Amino acid sequence: MSTARIKICGVNTPAALDAAVRHRADYLGFVFFAKSPRNLALRDAAALGARLSGRASAVGLFVDADDATIAEAASAARLGAIQLHGKESPERVAALRGQLGLPVWKAVSVSSRADIDAAARYAGAADLVLFDAKAPKGADLPGGLGLVFDWTLLAGYRAPFAWGLAGGLSPDNVAEAIRVTGAPLVDVSSGVESAPGVKDEGRIAAFASAVRAA
After folding, report:
1. Is 64 a known active-site residue?
2. Residue 136 DSSP one-character state
3. Which residues form the N-(5'phosphoribosyl) anthranilate isomerase (PRAI) domain (predicted)?
């Protein structure tokens, strides 16, 4: 039985939030990135943060956003952590962590073992590194595209930080992903949707069950 923690990313409606909580997700991802079909307006994020009310931790996803944008969203949506999904440097990660007083996660795009090795530069700066599949060149979105990378790149990985696995996870493949990588946290977005940005409770339930049975 796996003890991997579960993050449902791209939660953008009260129904999706309630479904994620009902199936005992540890983290709910709120997306603050205009190009995403899961993007949240500040007012809607605030309403979801109030509805969540500490039943799980809200993680705000940002892509190369400025300090004021992140700080405003963190306060309004009662975020428990910040996830940076752009080109943020270790210095930027560490600075935000100090300014906000919140855990900061850094997504790292992976297509080779060199990408995983290079993530070591975030040790001591990020509270958690999230390994995600590298988006195709020119893609509008850095994640949430349903792409999978070669999980064997993480087989036997000894991380210098807390870490998690993202990228193309679904109810059908997450157990295998955990078996291959030993991931202590798994992050899903499009894999529990019926259409882009539309969460499906049946798929959330199936994903959570598959994680716990892995």
Report:
1. no
2. P
3. 6-208
- Tell me the three state secondary structure of residue 185: strand
Query: How crowded is residue 142: how many other Cβ atoms within 10 Å of its Cβ?
Result: 20
Residues comprising the chain, all counted: 214
Q: Tokens for 106, please give them.
A: 């850094």
Please pick, among 18, 26, 132, 172, the residue that the annotation labels catalytic: 132
Tell me which of 9, 44, 64, 115 is the catalytic residue: 9
Please say if 115 is a catalytic residue.
Answer: no
Tell how many helices (H) and how many strands (E) occur in the chain: 7, 10
pLDDT of residue 68: 96
Q: What is the pLDDT of residue 144?
A: 54
Expressed as residue numbers, the domain containing 111 is 5-213
CATH code for the domain of 193: 3.20.20.70
Q: How many domains does the chain have?
A: 1
Q: Where are the beta strands (DSSP E) in 88-127?
A: 104-110
Measured distance CA(66)–CA(22) in Å, rounded: 34
pTM exceeds cut of 0.90: yes
pLDDT band at 143 (very low <50, low <70, confident <90, very high): low
